[in-house]
Structures are given as structure tokens and as C-alpha cells.
Amino acid sequence: MLIPREIEKEFIYSLILDDQKKFEEIIYGNKLDYERILSIISLNRIEYFILNKLDEVSNSSELPTNFLDKLKKNYLKKSILTLKTIEKIFLLSNKLQDSNLEHVFLKGIALHDQNKINMRTMRDIDLLVDPKDIPQVVDLAKSLKFKFINENTDLSEDFFNNSSFYDLPLMTDDNEVFLEIHFRITTKSDNCPLKDNIFESKRLTKIHGSNIYIPSQNSLFVHLVYHASLKGNFNVGLIALVDTLQIFNKVTKKEVLKISESLEMTKITELFFELAEFFKNKKVILSKDAKKLKEVLVFPSLNSKITEILTQQSFLKMLSKSKDTLFVSKTHLQREFGVNKKLPSIFLFVRRWIRQMNQFSSPILFVLKNFIKVNKRTKIIRDLLKN
Q: Taking the model in full, what pTM does it have?
């Protein structure tokens, strides 16, 4: 992970926010390290977007050929998995519709634009279903060669009744296409207004000849902001901004803010709108908070759990959140490792701690090496999340 320099931030944002003047000023200044730029773009998973932007920019030919070739190569690597993912979405969609099961495909495929040369890449399939239909949905997924990563997974009702869960354990197929089956979006309580809104306003759209149920543009916008902020603790990166900019002109701001209010995220939603307004009109003067949002989004993504711990209001709360992360309930352990009556819980905890050490070691080292900058980021996030 690398922290972007000011000139690198300006270059990336000149493309994202359509600032042609700034773009020309930077590339003709010849001060960029294009290997670092490639790394930033890759970490944020926006190769496809940058390539589409460069196709629209008349003087993109001034960029180094080597940079453009590597950018296209990185995109093509990710697009292979995307094509496999889209194929599975079509197959799963047909089966769900034939079985008359209520469902909506979230995010990735809902943002697919058939008119763009380079398609938005996808890492997995996000599917929202009615909790009562989960056994049937899982059976349909298994008929398409999906299986739970943990073979001992048991679909206990404790998953659905526990408000800290919003989806089933991860499923995958032989091509490493991942499937996340959601039964709600938020995790604060069993009541999920965003889930209800997504179902109520879902729309049927045709993508490459296949009918797919996706969210309305309004609920999609809210979900993108929620996923980037409250849920992801700003660890999604620049792709969150890129995605909201793609649908900005298709949403009704009043309706989006109404949904956001029910999730207590009006402020952060308005800031995403502010950046979208600037994208549309460069005469807009960005507020301090909007500039802070830009800084947070371009900063290297940390592990969301680590960010959640760091953003607690006091040291005692940080310790409490750390304890909650290290010591989870039996239901959490069963969700992660499946039901295994032969092994006592302590062995599962040890397995989990080893997994967490592997997962957290790199972000923790990054935090320690860049403590001042990370601390500044933490304060900004804490402020941005105040509704």
C-alpha cells in the first residue's frame, strides 16, 4: 500500500472529476511516477473507468505508451473474472425467475454499462433475497456448481435472527466466482429499511439479452454510499465515488436523501452529491467536508475492522471494540467454520486468530509506519460519519 502524493491525487481526480485543464497541466509538467499511478488505480479497482476516460480525452496520447499498455493489461486480467461472473449472474437470474423467488442483484451488475468500451469489473455476485426463500436459493446456487467455502456450513436460523449478520457464508464455484447471498443490507437491527426499499423499487432491465432484477437508481445510489461509508468504513476506495458519478444524473436527490435519513447517513450522502455537482459544474466551490471526503477516498484502504477500532471515541471503546473483534459468539464461529462437534470452541478461536493475524498483519504494520497520517484520516472519518 502506498500513500498518494499530492500530484498523484490531482492527476487521478482530474480524470475522475473531468477536470481537463488540471489534467493537461499535470501531464505536460512531466512530474508523474506512472508506476505509482498504476498501483493507485489498481488498488482502487478503477482501471476500466480510467481507460474509458482516456478514450474521451483528446491529449491522452501524451501519456507514456508503457503506462497505457500496463493499464490495459491490468484491466484485461480483471475482466476475465468479470465475464465469468456475468455468465453466472445470467444463469442464476433465469433460475430465480423461473422459480418465482423474490430477488435483486446488487451493485456490480446493476452498474454494468453496455455502451462503454471497457466494462466495470466485478469481484463477486451480490444477491439480495427474502430470508424465507434462502433454502431454495441455496439449492439453485448449488445446481450451478456453487458451494460453501466451508463444507461444514449449517444454515442455522441463528444467522437470520442475529442482527450482526446480513448475508450467508461465502459460496464459490470452480472458476472462483464468489456468491454473497444477502438477506438484508444493514446490521444494526432486524429491521432494514434499505432492504425494503430495494425490493419495493426494484426494476427489470435487459443486459446483453438477459432480464435481470436490479435496484432502482435511487436505492442503488444510497446502497453505494452506505457500502462505502457506514459499512465499509471508507475502505472501498475511489470506486465508490466513480460508481455514484455514473448514476448521479439518473437519481432524484430528494428521494435519495429521504432513504439516507432512515439510515442516519444524510450528511455523507450530501457530500457525495456535492462531489457529483462539482463533476458536473467546475464553478461549484467544494466545502471543507467534501474536500475531506476526497482525501479519505484516495487514501489507501485499510482493513475495515481496524478502521472501526481506530475511529472509536475513546481508548476504552477501542479496547472494547478490539475485544469484540477477537472474541466472538459461538454463532459467529459456526458461521465462519461451520458446525464441528468434534472440536471445542477454543480450537476454533485459535484458527480464527491465526487467520486474523494473516489478515491484519499488513494493515497494522502500515498503520504503525504511517501513524500520523492514519490518525489524521481517522479523525476525518469520525467527523464525516457524524450525521
A: 0.89
Quickly name the fold that domain 96-215 has: Beta Polymerase; domain 2 (3.30.460)
Query: Helices 239-247 and 6-16: crossing angle, nearest 10°?
Result: 20
Q: Are 140 and 92 in contact (CB under 8 A)?
A: yes
Q: Where are the alpha helices (DSSP H) in the chain?
A: 6-16, 20-29, 34-43, 47-56, 65-98, 134-143, 157-161, 193-200, 217-226, 239-247, 253-262, 266-280, 288-298, 304-310, 315-326, 330-337, 345-369, 371-384
Give dist(CA 2, CA 39) in Å, integer.
8
Q: 462503454: which residue's cell?
A: 116
Phi, psi of 182 (to 5 degrees): -95, 145
Q: Are 133 and 155 in contact (CB under 8 A)?
A: no
Which of 226, 243, 122 lies closest to 166, judged by CA? Answer: 226
Query: From first to last of its 387 residues, what are the pLDDT tens digits of the chain?
Result: 789 999 999 999 999 998 888 888 888 877 889 999 999 999 999 999 999 988 887 777 788 899 999 999 999 999 999 999 999 999 999 999 999 999 999 988 999 988 888 899 998 999 999 988 999 999 999 999 999 988 777 776 666 666 678 888 899 999 889 999 999 888 766 788 899 999 999 999 999 889 999 999 999 999 999 999 988 788 888 999 999 999 999 999 999 999 999 888 999 999 999 999 999 888 888 999 999 999 999 998 888 888 888 888 888 988 888 888 877 777 777 777 766 666 677 777 787 888 888 888 888 888 889 999 988 999 999 888 886
Radius of gyration of the chain (CA): 21
Decide if 278 contacts 17 (C-beta within 8 A).
yes
Q: What are phi and psi of 6, to 5 degrees?
A: -60, -45
Q: Are 266 and 229 in contact (CB under 8 A)?
A: no
Residue 121, helix vs strand vs coil? coil
On whether the CB atoms of residues 196 and 76 are closer than 8 A, the answer is: no
Domain ranges across the chain: 96-215, 225-299, 305-384
CA separation, residue 207 to residues 24, 89, 124, 189, 213 (Å): 36, 11, 17, 34, 10
Which positions ≥6 away from 257 have C-beta within 8 Å? 266, 269, 270
